[in-house]
Amino acid sequence: ALRPLPHFCGVRHLRLANAAAAGCVFAAAAAAGRRLHPRASYAGVAAAAALLALLPTHSLYTWLYYTDAPGLACLLGCWAASLAGRPVSTALAATAAILCRQTNAVWVAFIAGDALLRAAAAAVPLEARWTGRKGVAGQVAALATTLASTRGRPLASLIPCALPCAAFAVAVAMNGGVALGDKGNHA
C-alpha cells in the first residue's frame, strides 16, 4: 500500500521555510557586502550582514509565514549577482524576487539602475566622469552623454533586470492591477 506523503504545510514547516530564507538573507547580504567592500574584513562584512538579517522589521516577519524573508533574500541575491557580473543569475533572482512580492519590481529597477551606472562609470575614464555637473538633471545629462559616447554598450547591463520587470508590467496590464488573487483585500 502507498503511504501518505508527509504534511509539509503545517505551521512548523512553513516557519522553517522562512527561517531558511532568513539564512539566505544573511548569505546574500554578505555576498553583496564582499562585492561592495572588497577590502573590508570578513568579520566586518558578516557583522553588517547579520545586522541586516536581524533588523526588527525583518525578524518579525521571518517567524510569520509571509513573503518578506524570501523576497528580501531574492533581492539581495539579485544585487549580489549583478555586482558579480552574472547576468543569468541576476535575471533568475530578479524574477524570483518579483514572484515573491510584486512590489519588488521597484527594487529590481533600482538594481538595474545601479548596474547601468557601474557599467557607464567603467566605460569612461575617471577624469571624464560627470565632473562639474550639478543636480539630478546635470547627472542625467552626463549619463546620457556617456551612453552616447560609448554607443550604448552599458545599456546591456540593464537586460537581466529589465526582462523580469517588463514581464511584470505585462502581467499587471493583463491582470488589471498589481494584486493577484483577492483584489478586494489588496485595494
Q: What's the arrangement of secondary structure elements?
A:
Layout: H1 11-36, H2 42-53, H3 56-62, H4 68-84, H5 87-100, H6 104-123, H7 135-149, H8 159-175
Helix pairs in contact: 1-2, 1-4, 4-5, 4-6, 5-8, 6-8
Care to describe what's here?
This protein is mostly helical. It has helices at residues 11-36, 42-53, 56-62, 68-84, 87-100, 104-123, 135-149, 159-175. It is globular and about 65 Å long. The termini are far apart. The mean pLDDT is 83.
In short:
The protein contains 8 helices and no strands. By secondary structure, the protein is mainly α.
Task: List the keywords.
mainly alpha; about 190 residues; single chain
From the N-terminal CA to the C-terminal CA, the straight-line distance is 48 Å
Overall radius of gyration: 20 Å
Count all strands and give the number.
0
Largest sheet: none
Shape by Cα distribution: globular
Helix-strand pattern: HHHHHHHH
Name the beta content range. under 5%
Percent of residues in helical segments? 55-70%
Structural class: mainly alpha
The helix tally amounts to 8
Average pLDDT over all residues: 83
Low confidence ranges = none
